[in-house]
Specification:
four-stranded antiparallel beta sheet, mainly beta, 10 strands, Jelly Rolls, six-stranded antiparallel beta sheet
């Protein structure tokens, strides 16, 4: 069962995981206007390729170690760290070890929700 828009209570068994790249999968964990959270799991060496979008993004590094690139700047972050991405800034990550990111977007990512 998938998580529904504006769902009040979400159990982890309701996440629908989808593979989005080699060694990378994501699950929408909660969403509604204007906010969305998404878990993203990475295997060591997996890449979240450089991209940009009109959404504000804050990411919590739940576990692992990542080289994070934002607007040409790089920094290594580990579990417990955060990063902030303003709209339209190019950003991406390289997983230096297995890890999980929790992405928060505003407005919600309509492009992530299956019609």
């Amino acid at each position: 069962m998938a998580v529904a828009k504006n769902q009040t209570f979400i159990e982890s068994t309701q996440y629908e995981w989808e593979t989005v790249a080699d060694g990378v999968r994501r699950a929408i964990t909660a969403y509604g206007d204007p906010l969305m959270t998404v878990l993203v799991e990475f295997r060591k060496g997996a890449v979240g390729y450089l991209h940009r979008h009109p959404h504000v993004q804050i990411t919590y590094v739940q576990s692992g170690r990542f080289e994070v690139s934002i607007d040409g700047r790089k920094q290594t972050l580990t579990g417990g760290d955060f990063y902030y991405v303003a709209p339209e800034l190019e950003h991406g990550v390289l997983a230096l070890e297995d890890g999980v990111l929790l992405d928060v977007f505003t407005p919600m990512r309509d492009d992530f929700v299956k019609a």
